[in-house]
Amino acid sequence: GEQVEQRPPHLSVREGDSAVIICTYTDPNSYYFFWYKQEPGAGLQLLMKVFSSTEINEGQGFTVLLNKKDKQLSLNLTAAHPGDSAVYFCAAPSGSFNKLTFGAGTRLAVCP
Amino acid sequence: DPKIIQKPKYLVAVTGSEKILICEQYLGHNAMYWYRQSAKKPLEFMFSYSYQKLMDNQTASSRFQPQSSKKNHLDLQITALKPDDSATYFCASSQEGGLTEVFFGKGTRLTVV
User: Fold this and answer.
1) Residue B43 is nearest to which of A32, A89, A97, comparing CB atoms?
2) Is the N or C terminus of chain B more exposed, i.e. has fewer CB atoms within 10 Å?
3) Which chain A residues are Cβ-neighbours of B102 within 8 angstroms?
4) Residues B11-38: pLDDT tens digits?
């Protein structure tokens, strides 16, 4: 089945800097992915659904790049602010009915 | 206004006891799921249900039993609790089928002492 590696596990940046989180997946047949944000004590907030047909996906304050050749997915937060501090997860569907395989998460701290 | 409601938010249980985690969603979705998040492992898929029928079970232990009394309810009964069951359990839902967004509740944090 699908396996997802996510790095780095921890990331600390200053306000206004960019932050990049990378996920590497194994199944070349995976064709859509998700990014989630988890704030302390909260559930997982869906940030973006990414289709393999689009290499660059833009959201509010972030960009997701998909490199199918290297089976890599990256989340780039541009001009990070303290409200971006959270744990970020990538997820890929694997095998059966909407089963998601998650990366281990990246804990992002944005310092003022 | 949360659309996926999980109860309780926190739960402390004694080893060997039984608990039920409640989940109801008001998104009109046909599919519901349970995931577990512990300190030792990333988010793990446990079960998926579609139209109240079990679609996939990735939980090795029969101590975990989902219960669906209505299309928008998927409770999780855990029997003979062990300290290793301590984790945050997340309920999720989506429309049936692939390519659909999966939305998560806020979780129930279970501690088994």
Assistant:
1) A89
2) N
3) 34, 46, 91, 98, 100
4) 999 999 999 999 999 999 999 999 999 9
* Cis bond upstream, residue A8 (ω within 30): yes
Q: What residues form DSSP beta bridges with B112? A: B13
Best to test chain B binding among A98, A100, A102 (most B CBs inside 10 Å) = A98
> B32-85 pLDDT, tens per residue?
999 999 988 889 999 999 899 999 898 879 999 999 999 999 999 999 999 999
In our burial notation (b when 16+ CB lie closer than 10 A, e otherwise), range B50-77 reads bebeebbbebeeeebebebeebbbbbbe
CB atoms within 10 A of CB A57: 18
- HEC sequence for B49-94: EECCEEEEECCCCCCEEEECCCCCECEEEECCCCHHHCEEEEEEEE
